[in-house]
Write a structure and sequence with these properties.
Length: 345
């Protein structure tokens, strides 16, 4: 009973309908090597010996693993054997409904201003296609709602607009939230689309896209700040928006990825992970030269890749050379692999 009460009190300031937002201050000078064992409860290695390509998106069910490449989606069993592969166009997102056993893939065509979402059953048979008003970038399924983060570019002023909507899977009607982010910034002088991140915490949908240092909660068609973070200044460096940065939740862990650019050389950037355990308030802030170190199979440094629709999970992609380092510990073929990581709860 005491543990339940403590758990509630720790989460109380962060209850999604409360007015108070959580403030996070990050000090890039106070860092340490981030080890996988610090927050991983279980790691399941799956060989990709039978899969051709580099995973861009991963969706995990109790029976299958779905891997999205640039323009294909593949169904694998949990041993890594490829069952089926389907060509579907340029993929920007993947999610699914475990109750209906359906997979949703967002597709764009650079020659068109709109996009679409394709619904497949678990056997990758196409069931339906939905037109999206703008170009979909990220998908998230939660409580019978399919959330869509999309964008359009006004070339006359070189500005990108980002929007959030829900897609009614019965009527195919897309409903937009009164939420829009306008961005005219450049990354190394080039206009790039900023990826969005949906996540879940306390059974509530959250969203961020790295343009603003904010994670938003979504409730009854409204968005509001839930987490706001600041990054302390570092000599000769400045914080930078990055199109691939992610901010959100992996189970009970708050994740903020951030970049610092060298003010004397804009091509030189340092990359950091900030993690905070929302139960214990323990904070992890990795060194810019270490990323995440796999100290469980000793395959070296690696990147965390999110699986938003598998609560408390993320994955790590390992090249063949990484797997070879752990040949005595990994009972896998000498081929690329996925590490499915379940975080501590």
């Amino acid at each position: 009973m005491k543990k339940i009460l403590l758990h509630f009190l720790l989460f109380l300031p962060f209850l999604i309908y409360a007015q108070k937002e959580k403030s996070v201050r990050i000090n890039p000078n106070d860092t340490a090597t981030l080890y996988l064992s610090q927050f991983a409860e279980e790691v399941t290695p799956i060989s990709l010996n039978d899969y051709n390509g580099t995973p861009q998106f991963v969706y995990l069910t109790d029976e299958y693993l779905y891997i999205g490449g640039i323009s294909t989606i593949s169904q694998l069993d949990l041993s890594g054997k490829v069952i089926k592969t389907v060509n579907c166009g340029y993929i920007t997102g993947i999610t699914g409904d475990p109750a209906k056993k359906e997979i949703y893939i967002s597709i764009i065509n650079n020659q068109e201003e709109t996009g679409r979402i394709i619904c497949y059953d678990y056997a990758l048979r196409e069931k339906k296609s939905y037109k999206v008003n703008y170009k979909p970038n990220t998908l998230f399924f939660h409580k019978n709602n399919l959330w869509v983060y999309s964008y359009y570019i006004d070339n006359s002023i070189v500005t990108t607009y980002y929007k959030i909507s829900t897609m009614d899977l019965v009527t195919a009607k897309e409903t937009f939230l009164p939420f829009e982010i306008k961005d005219d910034s450049k990354f190394h002088g080039v206009t790039l689309v900023q990826n969005g991140t949906f996540s879940e915490y306390n059974d509530q949908v959250l969203f961020s896209n790295g343009i603003e240092p904010v994670i938003y909660g979504i409730h009854e068609g409204k968005t509001f700040p839930v987490v706001r973070y600041t990054i302390d200044q570092v000599e000769n460096k400045s914080s930078e928006k990055h199109p691939l940065s992610k901010q959100g939740f992996i189970g009970k862990y708050l994740l903020i990825e951030y970049w610092l650019v060298n003010t004397s050389n804009s091509r030189s950037s340092d990359y950091f992970y900030y993690l905070e355990d929302m139960e214990t308030q323990k904070k992890y802030n990795n060194r810019d030269d270490s990323f995440l170190y796999d100290d469980m199979y000793h395959t070296g440094l690696c990147y965390m890749k999110l699986m938003p629709n598998k609560k408390g999970y993320f994955y790590i992609y390992r090249e063949q050379s990484d797997v070879s380092k752990a040949s005595g510990r990994l009972k896998l073929p000498d081929a690329p692999a996925l590490f499915l990581v379940k975080t501590k709860q």
